[in-house]
Amino acid sequence: MGSQEGARSSARPAAVTGGNRQRAAVTVGVEEEFLLVDPVSRQLSTRADKVVAQAARELGDRVTTELTRYQIEVRTDPHTSLADLGDQLRATRDTVTRAAARFNLRIISSGTPILGQHTFLPLSPGPRYALSAATFRALDHEQSACACHVHVGVSDLPTALQVSNHLRPWLPALIALTANSPYWAAQDTGYASWRTMTWCRWPVAGPPPYFESPTHFEDLLDSLTTSETLLDRGGLYWDIRPSHHVPTLEIRIADATPTVHDTLLLAGTVQGMATRALEAVRASQPALRPQPELLRAAYWRAARDGLTGKSLNLRTNRLEPAAAQLDRLWVTALPALDTSDEPGLALLRTARARLRTDGNGADRQRTAYRRRHRLTDVVDHLIESVTATDAPHHTSGLSRSAARPRRP
What we know:
By secondary structure, the protein is of the alpha+beta class.
C-alpha cells in the first residue's frame, strides 16, 4: 500500500556503455512487502513495529511499517545491474529475517495471508493511517494484502505518462507472471491472484487511464483530490503511477513475490519493458489503446487463471494460452536488457527455468498444500522461500535451523 510517506524508491536514469555506443540504462528499484507470522501457530503476528526497529539498525529508513501491524515494507536502492539488485534483495531479506527471528517470528512473502485474520485489522499508528481508516472504512479493515513494486527511472512527467500508456496493455501478463495469492481467510479462492481482485475495490486502483497529456493527468488528480477520493498523491493506487517526489514510474501490479529469483524476474521484465517503451516514445510510436472494459476483463482472467489457463490477447480480443502471452512479452522485453550484465541475465534464465518447471507463486503454494492438505504447510513453504536461493550469491547469517519453523 505504501508507507506513510508514500513510495520512496529512487531509480534515476544513468549512462552506461553498451557495445561500442553510449546509451541510457533504465535504472530499477524495488519495494517488497512481507507478512509477519508466528512459526508455531502460523498465524499473523502484530509485532511488525518491533521487527522494523530491529532491522532498521542495519537498513535505516529502507525498512518501515505498513498499514497493518502484520506488515513490513523494505526498499532497495536504484540499480542498473540486475545482479547488484539481486545481491541487495538477498541481503535485505536476510536482515529482516534475522530481525524477526530475534522475536521468535518469521516473515513470508505472499500476496494475501494464508490462515484466518481478524475482522478488524490492527492498524499501524500514525495520522495518515488514521485518516485512511476514517475515509475508506471497511476497505482498510480487510487490507492485509502485500505487493512487490518496481520503480523505473524516467526523467520527466510527460515521458512517464507516455511510458505508462505503452506498458498498460501488458499489465495482465504481469499479473499472471507474479500471481501468488490463491488463499484468503483459510480458503482456496479459486484464483491465482486474489489480491488483484481485492485491490481493485479501491476507488483509484487497478489499470491506469490512457493519458492524453500531462494536463489530462493533473486535471484528473486535482478532481480526485478535491472530491476527497484521494487522501493525497501518495494515495494514488493505479497499477502504474508516476512518483510525485522522485523521477520514477512505479509499476505496482505484482503480488508479493516468494523468492528473490521471482522478484528479479519481475524487475528484469519491467526494466526491459520500460526500455522498449522509452524507445517507442522517442520514435513517436503510438501505444496500443485497449478498451477499458476489455483491459479489466483481461485483469480478471489473468487473476483467475495465472499461467495455467488462457489470457485475453488485447490486440486480437481473443483468448490464447497464458504462457504464449508471457513468451511474447519476453520476446519484446528481454532483448532490451543490457547484455554486459551477464550475471544478471544468468539469474533471469534461472528464474525463467524454475517458472517453467514449478509454476508461479500460486502454483507452488497449491503444490505445498496438496502434499498433506494442510494450510500450515503452505506457510512453512513460504517461510523457507523468503531466503531460498538457487545460486550462492549471498549467505544468510541465519542458520537453516533458525529459519525453519518449529512444528507442533
